[in-house]
User: Fold this.
Amino acid sequence: MPSPYEQMFEQHAAPQHEAHFGVPVVFIRGANESAQFTAPWEHHEYEVFGHEGFPVKVKSRDWILPAAKLVVDSATVEPRAGDRIRDVDTGDVWEITSLSSSIPAVELLPGNYRYRVHVKRIEIG
Assistant:
């Protein structure tokens, strides 16, 4: 259960963060789409092991998706590998994918309000 601080943060600070640092996106599962919402993204660098067994640094764009906005076909869904995100401003489409066997594609953030998803761009708008 979220703490009172986390609840207050969700009510007041998180919407301001999304409004100032987010971009309009649509979440896509199969042929179905969510309503448009605002989501911020971050650049992260991860160390993974390449196919030859050596450590390799991978740069990833990670989207931060508000759990309450992931509504497809009138049902709230959890993101998973293969789902897509379309940046409404640019038209770019990003697919949720795992970076390696040790880094999952989707991470539920503390408080259970948001997901961090790792993506690769599959379509340029």
Summary: The radius of gyration is 15 Å. Residues 96 and 119 are 4 Å apart (CA to CA). The chain is about 15% helix and 45% strand.
